[in-house]
Inverse folding.
């Protein structure tokens, strides 16, 4: 079979892994990017500071890996929820108290 | 913000500034203070210092960066006089000794798929809305943010709660963008992990 084109087989999973594992990450091309690397780089990715090459590898991984897709969606949920935490406004009394301080400051300054 | 109106004595302008900035000041002050009462005092002291200094404000930083810096200085001075340790005395101290943000056992350790998820990551969107009480969900996030190490807590508060830019956060805290991202990365992951624990409780209730 000297002329046969050599096609690299996808790496085989060890026999002792439960079948479910195979369904988790199906990027097939494990050279592309491992899920753990994606996790490490995800903030840089979301912040837009990854170089074009790594961004491409990461996008390729995301396009085929459900778990990583869910993981990134989870982080976006985290960011959205953190951004929607209620802010604590001053009570009216406390605000009036600050305005009194302001008034006093203006008066003192103008009398100088 | 209309600085001239503020210097002129326009109370409406002052009220607007207070409403706009006080929540962020309080959030910052809480991180630097041993008690809620001390945090509130620090905020009030900050406003007084802002008024004293406003005529000298040159606009090199944004008004809110300048005001937040005043707050941090006051909080530091108080902490120093009470011999308390402070956030940012060492940035690396927050790094949790370089622990990975996701426990290594979540990934396959060997074989051709080493480094890939060992167990699937759940799609939170699949959990029925009715199970997710928005208030409860936010409560989990707020509690976890409050438990973060100080540097992470301040960075996630300014970036994700208050929506500041990287540049402004770095300018205020005088840190490098890279360090800021590390803190943000760790903070977001701890909050994610807390939500993941909450979600698995919720799904177990089915």
């Amino acid at each position: 079979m000297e002329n046969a084109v050599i096609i690299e087989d996808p790496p085989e999973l060890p026999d002792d892994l439960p079948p479910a594992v195979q369904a988790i990450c199906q990027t097939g091309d494990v050279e592309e990017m491992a899920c753990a690397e994606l996790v490490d780089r995800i903030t840089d990715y979301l912040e837009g500071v990854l170089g074009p090459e790594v961004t491409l590898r990461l996008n390729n991984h995301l396009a085929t890996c459900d778990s990583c897709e869910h993981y990134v969606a989870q982080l976006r949920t985290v960011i959205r929820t953190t951004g929607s935490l209620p802010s604590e406004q001053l009570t009216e009394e406390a605000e009036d108290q600050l305005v009194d301080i302001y008034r006093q400051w203006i008066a003192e300054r103008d009398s100088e | 913000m209309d600085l001239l109106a503020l210097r002129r004595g326009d109370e409406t302008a002052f009220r607007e500034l207070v409403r706009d900035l006080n929540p962020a000041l309080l959030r910052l002050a809480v991180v630097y203070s041993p008690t809620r009462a001390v945090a509130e005092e620090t905020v009030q002291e900050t406003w007084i210092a802002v008024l004293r200094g406003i005529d000298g404000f040159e606009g090199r930083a944004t008004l809110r960066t300048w005001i937040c810096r005043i707050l941090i200085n006051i909080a530091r001075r108080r902490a120093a006089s009470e011999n308390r340790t402070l956030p940012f005395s060492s940035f690396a101290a927050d790094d949790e000794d370089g622990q990975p943000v996701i426990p290594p056992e979540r990934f396959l350790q060997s074989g051709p798929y080493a480094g890939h998820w060992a167990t699937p990551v759940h799609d939170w969107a699949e959990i029925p809305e009715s199970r997710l009480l928005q208030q409860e969900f936010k409560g989990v996030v707020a509690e976890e943010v409050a438990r973060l190490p100080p540097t992470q807590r301040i960075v996630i508060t300014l970036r994700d709660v208050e929506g500041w830019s990287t540049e402004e956060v770095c300018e205020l805290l005088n840190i490098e963008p890279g360090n800021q991202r590390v803190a943000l990365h760790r903070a977001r992951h701890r909050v994610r992990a807390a939500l993941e624990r909450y979600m698995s409780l919720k799904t177990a209730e089915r």
Remarks:
- Chain B has a mean pLDDT of 88.
- The two ends of chain B are 51 Å apart (CA to CA).
